Amino acid sequence: MKNSAPPALVIVMSVSLLLLAGCAGLGTHLEPPRISLAHIQPQQFTGLEAVFQIQLRVFNTNDVDLQVNGIEADLEINGKPFATGVSKAAVKIPSFGTDLVPVTVYSSVIDIVKGFHGLKDTTQLKYRLKGKLRVTGDNMISTTLPFESEGQVTFNDSKAAGN
Known about the structure:
nine-stranded antiparallel sheet
């Protein structure tokens, strides 16, 4: 005796799978954003932690506006972990446009010492920035776009130059 699903159940499951496949194909493919470190400013130092406010320059290379709903970022200085943070920023970036997204990042005093060790005569430091941007495009559901960039930070004026 065979165990088989009733024909009505097979039809309902088949139609459901087709609808799901069709909906998945309706979304717009988004290019990952280009992001660079635009500014870094110390905010607070406590016993074992430092808080910095960074601004990330987000370049939208897509042909739809992007609504940034949040961002997660990890910052390395000279190849060593420096700070990490998240932001629930609500910034709308126009298609083929750019805007700044603020992120508060946190660093341990130990990571700061490691990042600056042996740099007494240097005014420029190499940085690497990576993370994820949570966005919603025109007529789209929310999606996560990864990013990664590198550049140099000049601490004379706390400005950064990125790739």
